[in-house]
Structure formats: structure tokens, C-alpha cells
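[Solved] Which block belongs to which protein?

Original post:
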Amino acid sequence: RADAQPAVPVSVPVGKIVSIHAQRTQVRRLLDDSSPADAPTAYYALFHDPARSALFTQADDRGRVTGFVAVCQTGIDLFRPLLTLQCPNADCAAALLGQALKAGRPYILFARVNQLPLVSDVLRLDNHRILHILRLDPRRFQPVINVLARSETAHDGTPRCVIESGGVQAVAGVNWQSPAFAEVFVHTDPALRERGLGTSVAAGVTQAVLQSGRIPLYLVEDGNGPSRNIAESLGYVDTGVRQVYADAVYSGQ
């Protein structure tokens, strides 16, 4: 969606501090936060805790932002910041990554798969996974009744559902949520899979997300048939959009 004008670094007058809230207003034009395709990137760029987020932007000759890199401290890994971006070309990505990252430091790359070719020259990527973004079709969703499933609220206020008996057997919750979407996760004890436990807890969280006015999303790795089966049994459908999740180290070049 970026315009074709050449991108130049945003120039900030000496002494003027641009708040992350002002940056987010500028960046919003590059993202559709009502679309599942942009939802994960939009969460970290626009809605993640501003005290633990930093944005780096480029603009065209009219001062309109054409690309950005967001770096966020998250609970996923306390030692590796999460990195996401939306850039129109490799030159923009390289310039912004040069501003945002430290050479040799590890990061987590979490971005639209179409950004992957733009960063391959400046990031060393390992253990990369391609995730399918599934979106719930509310018309297909039917609540699952399981008396063993206990609904509760996580420490961050998001819904959680758990089945326990001598330890956690299955748990589902929310990785992140924006005003429009929430990403549902589920984990089942490997020894207890294929008993419907994962489906039960995932259904509980899915229902809670719907009741909050948000649309549930489910990200599933290529080849993870059991996880995909849980999602599809509840009415999640593939959007056709792919997200990359990878270990990344900035080369400094």
C-alpha cells in the first residue's frame, strides 16, 4: 500500500521528541487493523505496550510514512525482543533495521511472509516457521461443553481455559489481543492428545473472545495437522495469509 515516491529517513528537528503515539498515527496508514492479514503486525506496531515498544519509520518526500520497523519487549522471550516490519522494498528494510537493531544481538522475527525476502541480506534466520493465519467464522462455531474445562482470567486480563487433574492436561489462552482480534493458542499434554481436551479448552477461549467483541484468530504451523484439526473443528478457516516466526540475528551490514 506504500506510495511509489522515494523513501527518505524521517527528519526530526533538534529538540523535538516524537512520541510513539504520534508515530503510530503515521504508521496506521500502512496497516488495515480490521484485516486478519495485518492483525499480528498491527498489534505489535499499534497496540503493544508503548513503554515496551519502539518504532522506526521512513517517509517519502511529502513526509508520509512508507515503511516501519517495530521492536517490542514481550513475554515470549525476556532476552530477545520481537521484531516486526512493513516495508516496501529491501533498501527501506535495511535502512530501518540498521537504526533499530544491534549487530550480533538475537531477536524474534514475526512478520508477514512477504517481508522475508526484504530482510534476508541483513538478518541471519534460523528455525523459521511459516504460520497459516486462520480466522473464526462465527456462523460455524458451536460451543463445546466439558465439565472438566475451567474458564478463568489470565494475569493480563485475557481469557484462559484449563483442564487439570494432577497437573495441567490442556490449556488455551490468548497470545495477544487488539481492539478487533485476539490470537488463540492451545497446548495439550502430548500423552493425552486426541481425547478432545484441546478442542474443549480452545472452544472455551474462542467463545470468550467472541463475547468480548473481537474476532478470534489461530496461527498454525505448516504440517501441524492435529492443531489445525482443532481449529477447523471449531469453525476457523484459512485466510490464505502466511506469517513467519524465526530466530534472527542482525548482521550489522
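(Second protein starts here: sequence line, then its C-alpha cells.)
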Amino acid sequence: AVNARGGHAGRHSFVSTYIFSTDHKMIAKQYLLLGLVMALVGAFTAYLIRWQLAYPNTDAPGWGLVSPDKFNMLITMHGTIMVFFVGMPILVGAFSNFVIPLQIGARDMAFPRINMISFWGAFLAAVVLISSFFVSGGAAAGGWTGYPPLSASAEYTGVHWGVVLWLLSLALLFASSTMGGINYLVTASCLRARGMTFFRIPLATWCLLAATLAFFFSVGPLIAGAVMLLLDNLIGTGFFLPQRGGEPLLWQHLFWFFGHPEVYVIFLPGLGAVLEVIPVFSRKPIFGYRTLVWSIIAAVGLSYIVWAHHMFVSGMNPKL
């Protein structure tokens, strides 16, 4: 409930205020905290990787010997954590929740409860990912890009349940990000202050909305690919395994069709921050506002058609 001045009315318990909150600022802080905690986990994996490279075959303090299979696991989990569980919660989740309503003059997000669920979906995804360290065989070890055949069968890495939990974690995170993205787009479309047209929206919000669109239109093929990869691991289908009639390159196409727009999902919020900071401290309005907006939109559009530059060494036709 909100009072006549737009403030939240009544007294709230600790749980409703700080844990299961529907206030966009508190949810932004929750995303920020989640991202920072996962950054520490990611930093620990980076430390172990660097220790093995600097001092091969010696015990790393706090861990022990970084064996080859553990090294592959650390590489996989480091990449997954830093891209999906640090970059996205902080740069998209925290920034979007905090900045968008304030910059467009809205009281809160369009769907506060869905906003709350989106955070707890991301939190659950992080818990599932961390739990994969402790199952039999350890966490996923097929690289953070999950290339088959390393990720499609346990015979290559000795990891089965770790891959299953890795895929489940990503599925939960993508569902969470989709719910959050719906909020960002609907809020900016429907709850703008009177007189604020789309070409009066601050550039930081434009960048956050563009990042959301980049995610929306690219994540579908990866979800389909993840389901197929899960089936390869659980019931022995052959979508990506050549010995079962599958095509490993199919996964690379599906992954990078999402993976390249994902670069912009993480880059655009940072660009938006720069575009806000420079005008404030130079005490001048941003130059070329409309050109920047259309450039951002064009960059998102181009991000969907250039994924093959991640696959130059895959053997596909270089002209493509």
C-alpha cells in the first residue's frame, strides 16, 4: 500500500522489508549483494586457476592440489559465475531496479511481486550452481561455453550431476531474468511521468532497456539448446553427439546466438552509466542524444547476426 504522497504506508516486518520485499530499491540492493557474494566465489576460482598456472603441482592454500579435472571445473564455473551471476545481477538486475523507476518518475516497478520473484529465482539459481560443487563427480567441467561433446556425456569429463545442476541453474536464472525484463520494459512503456516521451528518457534507462531487449530475443534458442543438452545427459538422446548422429556445432550456433547479444546485455548498462556521469560532471547536456539512442538500438540489432565470429576455428565456411 502507498499513501497519498507516494510513500509506502503502514509498518512492515523485518522479513517483508528486507527479505521478501516488493520495493524496487530494496530488490536492487538484494541483486547487488547477490552479485558481490558471487563475485567472491568467482574470485576464489580465479585465484585457484592463477595458482595452478604460477605454481603447477603444488597445493593451493585453502584448497589443495589443483588437478587437471579440477582445473577444468574451475575454468567452467569461473566463467559461468562471472558472466551470469556477477555481471547480470549487478549491471542489469541492480541498476535496472534502482535506476529505471527513478529516472522515469514511477513509484515502483509495474509488477512488484513479479520483481520480488525474479530476485529469488536468481538467488535459487545461485544456490543450485554452488551446490553442484558438492555432488558426486564435482561441478561441470566442460568449459563455461558448455561445448559438446565435453558437456554432453560424462565419459569425457567424469561429471554427470554437475552438468545437470549447471543446466538447471542457468534455466532458473534465465526464467528470473525474463521476469525482471518484463518489469523493466512494461515499467518504462507504461509508467513514465506525464510529458516524458520515449526521446526524453535518460540514456541510462535507454541502455538498460536495450540490454533487456538483447536478452529477450536471443535467449530462446539457448533455452532450447539447454533442454536438448539436458536430454543428451539424462536419457541418452543424440542432439550433439556425433556417435549418436548429432552435431556438436549445433550447440555452438545456439549458444553464440545468445552469447553475442549477452556481451551487450553486460556492456550497455556500463555504457549507460558513463553517459550519465559525463554530462553531470562536465555540466553539459549529452551531445547527439538521438544519434546515441538509434546507435544503441542498431547495436542490439546487429548483435543478433554476428555470432559466427565466435566460431572462426570451428570449420564452418569463413564467408558465412
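Accepted answer:
You had them paired correctly. Confirming on the second one: The first helix runs from residue 14 to 19.
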